[in-house]
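[audit] Reproducing an earlier prediction to check determinism. Same input, same settings, fresh worker. If the tokens differ from the archived copy the diff job will pick it up downstream; this log only records the rerun itself.
[audit] input (804 residues):
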Amino acid sequence: EGVTMFMVWQAALAVLLSRLGAGKDIPIGSAIAGRTDQVAEDLVGLFTNMLVVRTDLSGDPTFAEVLGRVRQAALGALEHQDVPFERLVEELAPARSMARHPLFQVTMTVQNVPEARIDLPGLDAEVRMSETTMAKLDLDFQVVERFDGHGRPDGLLGGLTYATDLFDEATAQTLVTRLVRVLKAVAADPARPVSRLDLLDPAERQRLLTEWNGDRRPATRTVPALFTAQAARAPHAVALAFGGERVTYGELEARSNRLARHLSDRGVTTESLVGVVMDRSADLVTALLAVVKAGGAYVPVDPGQPAQRIGRVLRQAGVDVCLADRAYAQAVEEHVRTVVVADEDPAGAAWAGAPDSAVAVRVMPDQLAYVMFTSGSTGEPKGIATTHRDVVELAGDRCWDFPGQARGLFSAPHTFDGSTLELWVRLLTGGQVVLAPRGRVGAAQLRSLTGEYGLTHAQLTAGLFRVIAEEDPTAFAGLHEVFTGADVVPAAAVRRVLQAVPGITVRNTYGPTEVTVIGTQIPLQDPQAVGDVVPVGYPLDDTRMYVLDEYLGPVPAGVAGELYIAGAGLARGYLHRPGLTAERFVACPFEEAGARMYRTGDVVRWNRAGQLEFLSRADDQVKIRGFRVEPGEVEAVLAAHGQVAQAVVVPREDTPGDKYLAAYVVLAHHAADPGFAATARDFVASRLPEYMVPPAVLVLDELPLTANGKVDRAALPAPLHASGAGPGRRPATVYEELLCTIFAQVLDRPGVTVEDDFFALGGHSLLAVRLVSRVRAVLGIDIPVTAVFEAPTVAGLAGRLGGA
């Protein structure tokens, strides 16, 4: 190929680093002798300079093409070898850090001069390698070309010096092994694209694709069949507990059958989509069960969302029949053909006289059970179609170790996929579902519910789990197990709970709605065994996790890749959106023909124990208090405002674990409007759920752009919420004075005034839970979280406390 041995090694190392996740532009440092002037040839001393040779690996080139690129880059570097490295750093001015060397962190040296003999009269002399006790860089590869006594090539000798703060010996040895594997492969076939160079040996491939994945146990039953069987086994066992109400399995079976017959008479049949606009109650559970018994699939809608959003979801799903509480029936009538009021007294309801025997409809495992809508990047919510088989496989997984009749809390909105875990896993395995009162559950409510109902299990989003763990970890006392997930779970919060409540299990779970709530789980019981990062765990039964590179090749353990999920729980796709379904649910190359896998967009890696660790997202999607949010949908709503010319929405996390959305807008004609931030929030709140409303809206003269003309998101200024502690009435009572301090602590602000609005200062529902917990700790007064929403100022809340 017209290259030197150095160029071959440079290209091979660049290919290896790229395949291990270092990107497509690989800079590698190399020492140059620095003796270009004949005057320096016979001088003793060190003239070495460092060159930076960048290797371009874009476009999936063959190795021969990479060699050509390396040759050009190396020759260009040699032409400028006299430029001191220090001058290069000064001119380029990269971001400096004490943790790493500037411009490159990996070096390669190839020594290709025959070893000189040292003849000194009266002395025996030999060349010895110096001992290395300190790594100057992350990785330093050395290669020596060996020669025989006649000066002919006699093999290669390689060495690697590595920083022990970053790598252990096993990892360093694996790097060397993979580099040799790359060299062998390209020597055999230099025309092979670098994406097809296999870094795995057969044992590794078997472990990644088979051994670390779930056993295959496909389900063959449906939700109504399993529930009916459970009701027949234990008709007098309590299925639902809500306030003073107790509903047995037998009663729930009869109620849901009667409502199912009524729905069937209203035209609900196989895979009819039925809207459910109801508050959390026993009637809600009856309604959901009745829909699937009638052969339909329920479309859960949060009645607390803006009316425009409710109508959009019902119309997009194509709902004809809708179950609703009486309070919401009139609001949905304009969007559907038939509204069935579902929260009436069962004795006087329109469907009370229907027979309580099952509907004569055949429900199959691959029929739809529900369609759940989540945020969409195009500005439209997308409906994820989940089948009975998906739900049944989740409920039947062997990881659920329920002692006796488990009593689990149902606190998630029924529009949130976590409700599937809280409701169906419990009911299909004979457990008891304890329905939480409306509103978000905090530490005080959790403790009260556990004492009243003898809860054994509860599920909380990662954000709420963190808040309770920090404020009052003993609130989990009495629980056998707490499930958490839907976002990154802080290790410190897990350790705090395990230390405060000995014997409890914290089960971290992971999974998008497209794979029926969760695909992995890991139980944590020993606080000493919880490391700095909490893994998302092991795949569930019949669930396969594939960590792949951009060419759909499996990456080695420890290497970041995008997660693809196949097997159990995989949704049918997106309702009425075949293009998006084909884009995200792709053919699986590791299983039988026709098998699919879901592209999650999550960047993860396997650790050595066969556990998955979440690293980041491959796109802009973010989880806000457990809910999936596509910033593009919020941008589309803002852009629809008549005064907005441009809008950008980005997720921020100024305080670890506290994610929120920040919106940046440029107004049409650059009209100055100091009050537009509040106007914009109100506009978004009228169209999107509360968790999608940006607490921070900044009006800019123009959006910062990169050299390519795209919005430079990194250059967007930090949001400044309402000023706080500005002009306003001073605290007039002890309550007001203490609340000003508590507000400031929770919001991480220097101070607030009596009239400052908690939510205008950047507060949200999770911080409201923390506020209520802090009020209880400081003042000894229990107030519901709803009080913060009803009276979000210090003055308003102090008035509530005065009457408590």
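[audit] rerun output stored. Observation attached for the diff report: The two ends are 84 Å apart (CA to CA).
[audit] end
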